[in-house]
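Prompt: I keep going back and forth on a fold encoding question. Comparing notes only helps if you start from a blank page. Show me how you would write down a chain together with its backbone fold. Please set it down just below, with no commentary around it:
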Amino acid sequence: MDDVHREALGGIQQLERELIVSDFVSLLNDGAHRELYPFLTDDVLYRPSPARIIEGRSAVTRMLADMHASFDEWSTTMVSVAVRGDTVLTEQRLRLRLAGSAAVEVMGFSSFRLQGFQICAWHQVHA
């Protein structure tokens, strides 16, 4: 395989990883928690904060559904994306609103590690 072909193949793989994360975030915004299953490995690790880790596809999607139920509005916009190897880094803007409150925007950063075409680790940090 020549260098040009190898570079093109690498670029396609990076784009695929970016699209997987983008589609995952879109489904998350829609509250389509059951539809997130194919995007996550059975033993996915989600770290929503430094002191907490949720393990397993069912536990992660259940926690996401519970979080969504806490807010009258929740949307995530990906501001920037970087892909390196099997890791996708995103800068995000979250718009959140509790019942009876004004909406607030929170900046966040996520690291998604992929195994094949599924997310096997997800670390979320909010600023």
